[in-house]
Design goal:
With about 200 residues, the protein is mainly alpha-helical. The protein has 7 helices and 2 strands, in the order H-H-H-H-H-H-H-E-E. A two-stranded antiparallel ribbon has the order 1-2. The protein is elongated, with a radius of gyration of 24 Å. The protein starts with 6 loop residues before the first helix and ends in a 10-residue tail after the last strand.
């Protein structure tokens, strides 16, 4: 092992790695696939932001004894009521903050609906994504993410290799004397943006 991180050492390591027969290369994504992945990542970010805003609104109103029932639609209904001036009795400073949070949550919700419409259009034009949606458990968002992420499915020798690429691996906890697995489970090492793939 060579020491010292230099550009020359890095270039030499890259050249050596390329010549190895077992080296696997990452296929290049098309501009359409990159665009679809950007839609997926943006949607994921906006869903998180909307959830944060709604939770913040719930917490703020709960401080004043106002509860919002569980569910996205009920929280958005309360947000609309706050914006329309039908907010529950809270101090004026809290009402201003509740209005700001409500407006932002509704704006993000509207953007998400636009992205979902774009997603539906993209799915209609992508044969691979439509076929993926026929698999039980894979919906439109997961189908889009898979179709955009996997450029060549033949790069995987097995389903286990594909699962590892997704960030999932099968972990055995104990093995009986006979060699059979006594306790096993799927372990996940996925980032938040990829969790919809799992």
């Amino acid at each position: 092992m060579k020491r010292g991180k230099t550009d020359a050492a890095d270039a030499e390591a890259v050249c050596e790695a390329v010549t190895r027969p077992t080296m696997r290369f990452v296929p290049v994504k098309s501009p359409e696939q990159q665009a679809a992945l950007s839609i997926h990542r943006t949607r994921d970010l906006l869903v998180k932001q909307r959830t944060q805003l709604i939770n913040m609104l719930r917490g703020l109103l709960a401080e004043f004894g106002v509860g919002i029932p569980k569910g996205l639609e009920r929280a958005l209904l309360m947000a609309r009521q706050v914006i329309d001036g039908k907010a529950p009795e809270v101090p004026i400073e809290a009402a201003r903050i509740a209005t700001t949070l409500s407006q932002q949550a509704l704006d993000i919700h509207a953007r998400l609906r636009e992205i979902d419409r774009d997603l539906a259009i993209w799915l209609r034009g992508n044969d691979i994504a439509r076929r993926l949606m026929t698999i039980p458990g894979i919906g439109p968002v997961g189908a889009m993410a898979l179709a955009a992420s996997v450029t060549d499915p033949h790069q995987f020798r097995s389903g286990r290799q594909f699962a590892a690429w997704l960030g999932r691996h099968f972990r055995s906890r104990a093995v009986a004397k006979s060699g059979s697995v006594v306790s096993a489970r799927w372990a996940t090492n996925t980032c938040a943006s990829c969790s919809s793939l799992a």
